[in-house]
Design brief:
about 80 residues, mainly alpha
Length: about 80
């Protein structure tokens, strides 16, 4: 495991309490839970960016074009 770095974060007191309870119930440290949550969030961000890259060449439609298309197809 890479060397851990120290950081100070400020949590809402309700979230902090819930995190401490979860840590106790799961027998994991608060740091482990926070690391897992941040890792998951960054993984989701990476997936979103990959999707954006994949759709970069799709045509861009204006809101007006979308409305006209919906009206044309009888959806509005």
């Amino acid at each position: 495991m890479p060397k851990a770095k120290r950081a100070t974060i400020y949590l809402d007191s309700t979230l902090h309490r819930a995190l401490r309870v979860k840590a106790a119930e799961t027998e994991k440290s608060v740091s482990d839970l926070v690391n897992a949550a941040v890792r998951q969030s960054l993984t989701e961000d990476a997936a979103d960016l990959a999707i954006f890259d994949g759709r970069a060449r799709e045509p861009v439609l204006s809101f007006e074009e979308v409305l006209k298309d919906l009206k044309r197809r009888g959806k509005l």
